Amino acid sequence: MTDDRPTGFQRARSAEQREIRKQTILEAAAELLTEMPVSDISLRELSRRVGLSKTNVVRYFETREAVFFELLNRDLARWIEELPTDLASAGAAGPASPRAVTDTLARSLARRTLLCELLSSLGSELERNISAESARDFKRAHARLLAALAELLRRHIPALSATAARELVSLTVVCTAGLWPFAHPSPAVAEAQQDPELAATKVDFAERLGRTLHIAAIGLLDLEGRAG
């Protein structure tokens, strides 16, 4: 049996139709991520969900990793677009402190479950089975978005240099990837953590990330002050 069985979709012929089809695939991937981890989602599973053959899905995304790379960058861009509103509230009563900025950053990111899931899978899962060309394409687009985030943070913490702001953004990504799985443990671990002796092992993602980023921001500002 081949994978080219008929589906309910007609072939997309115009650029607009192709874009609609791509967005349909991305939305199906996002929906699947609410039901299972990235590691369990194959192109075959994705094609079944979207109602296309695997061969047709590959016309839009060469690999499953390519689907998740685009989904990650799309959600990152959306977060960066909404973040100024959140950060503005941090300084509503006057200039925002670094702590207010990092706490707001962490709380805003915590609401982006899809983005956090994908960031936590990036180094351990998604970047492991791709070509150098695919990695280069993804990372170029990803780097541009992170640069925009760094510039946004500089506007709210003006004492940060461009280099320090980029480092703070890099730490945000790395800390998110590390903390998210511990803040969302397996059912067995979550049950074990009900033991009073293990209460301290529970991770509140927004609280821990905010504190970590605050420490990082203060450290970066101190290093720059010493260098100056």
UniProtKB/TrEMBL annotation:
Ranges of residues in domain HTH tetR-type: 19-79
DNA-binding region listed in the record: 42-61
One function term, GO molecular function aspect: DNA-binding transcription factor activity
Gene3D superfamilies membership: Tetracycline Repressor, domain 2 (1.10.357.10)
Keyword vocabulary terms for this entry: DNA-binding
Alphabetical list of Pfam families matching this protein: TetR_C_34 (PF17929), TetR_N (PF00440)
InterPro entries: Homeodomain-like_sf, HTH-type_TetR-like_transc_reg, HTH_TetR, TetR_C_34
Residues making up the signal peptide according to the UniProt record: none
Protein name, UniProt field: TetR family transcriptional regulator
Taxon lineage: Bacteria, Bacillati, Actinomycetota, Actinomycetes, Kitasatosporales
